[in-house]
Amino acid sequence: MKGKNFLGKLSVLCLMLVVLAVGAFAVPVELTTVKVNGVQLTPLTVNRLSVERGTQLDVEVRVLGLDSADNLELEAFLSGYEHNDARRVAAYSKVFSVEKDELEVKKFTVDLPGDLEVDTYKLRLLVTDRNGDALSQSFDLKVDSPRHKLVVKDVLTYPQGTVKAGEAILVRARVSNEGEKDEKNVKVTVSVPQLGLKQSTYLEEVGSDDEEQTEELYLPVPSDAAAGAYDLVTEVAYNDGYRDAQPVKTVVNVVAAQKAKVEEKAEPVQVTVQTTQPAPQPAPAAESSSKLRRGLEVVLLVLVALLVVVGLIIGFSKLKDDEEDDE
Predict the structure, then answer these.
(1) What is the pLDDT of residues 108-167, one digit of tens each?
(2) Numbers of helices and strands, H then E, in the chain
(3) DSSP string covering 79-140, please?
(4) Residue 186 burial by CB count (10 A; 0-12/13-18/19+): exposed, middle or buried?
(5) Nearest to 41 by CA among 117, 158, 97, 123
(6) Helix, strand, or coil here: 20?
(7) Could you give the dihedral angle defined by the CA atoms of residues 42, 48, 51 and 52, in that order, rounded to the nearest 10 degrees?
(8) How far is Cα of residue 27 from the mean position of the Cα atoms in its chain?
(9) Vertex 146, ends 144 and 148: CA angle to 5°?
(10) Model pTM greater than 0.85?
(11) What does the pLDDT look like over 14-48, one tens digit per residue?
(12) How big is the CA angle at 196 (ends 192 and 197), to the nearest 5 degrees?
């Protein structure tokens, strides 16, 4: 009987030594109060705090020092986000220290992405130092999507970034639906208020967890627009015009149109030119024509004379022949 009591006491003693050994290396703090969005949370309960994706978690943690500790960090995070390798759903405190029986209050925000899947997550709080064991607590959160929510996902412009005065900006906007409901007859407006430019179009429907892109919207920049940076504003109205998405501003640089170069006018120079009037000369063509005509007339007269002579010769010859026949 005494042996059993001895063994029992020895086991309790060993367990206490193990606990003390572990406790000696644990972070000597306690999380006394945890609030999210003003609601106090209790670990290991079945109740879940419902929050909406695309919003912020305002986290407040009260840390009680069980002993003096230095180089402490507090982290709040959610695991399981699809794009966690590019964007962590987490927030961190600055390095801090506590004294025994001292209460530190840490406040920070955790951004919930708009494309975070609707599900139940654990909000994990982790207190660590350089080489001690971490202290952790977990709280259940139910992440829901809002009933209605459209966001401007992207704005595409051509030319991109810079446009010349007198030319036009072509704009396409991509709209994402992060709400529960499909949205119909979504009005998208792009404008450059400083230049008085504005164009609108409609998207027939943007389904829940889906995206749609507008047609090209044409914004002609005035030719006399001053060079500088202007805000291209993209706005979205939906749910029968009762709701508006957060406007998105895109900077567009306008370059002044090039003016045509004006040539410098030279001073007029007065020049006096003396000329002598030549004597009129007969037109060469008329003179040649007159000579040709006279030549033709001479030839014609010669031919007529020859014909007359030949006629006379023939006549005399014939008359002589007739006389000889009569004898």
Answers:
(1) 999 999 999 999 999 999 999 999 899 999 999 999 999 999 999 999 999 998 999 999
(2) 2, 20
(3) ---TTTTTS--EEEPPPEEE-TT-EEEEEEEEEPPTTPPSEEEEEEEEEE-SSSBPEEEEEE
(4) buried
(5) 123
(6) helix
(7) 160
(8) 48
(9) 155
(10) no
(11) 555 444 444 446 899 999 999 999 999 988 777 78
(12) 55
CA distance 273 to 2: 148
Q: Where are the domains of the chain?
A: 23-144, 150-255
Tell me how far CA of residue 242 lies from CA of 114, 148, 179, in angstroms.
21, 11, 15
Q: What is 150-255's CATH number?
A: 2.60.40.10
CA end-to-end span of the chain, whole Å?
213
DSSP per-residue letters across 130-147: SSSBPEEEEEEEEEE--S
pLDDT < 50 stretches in the chain: 12, 17-24, 271, 273, 276
Number of residues in the chain: 327
Phi, psi dihedral angles at 221 (to 5 degrees): -85, 130
Q: Please, which residues bridge with residue 140 across strands?
A: 122
Measured CA to CA, the distance from residue 126 to residue 103 in angstroms comes to: 17
Q: Does domain 23-144 have CATH number 3.60.60.10?
A: no
Q: What is the DSSP letter of 312?
A: H
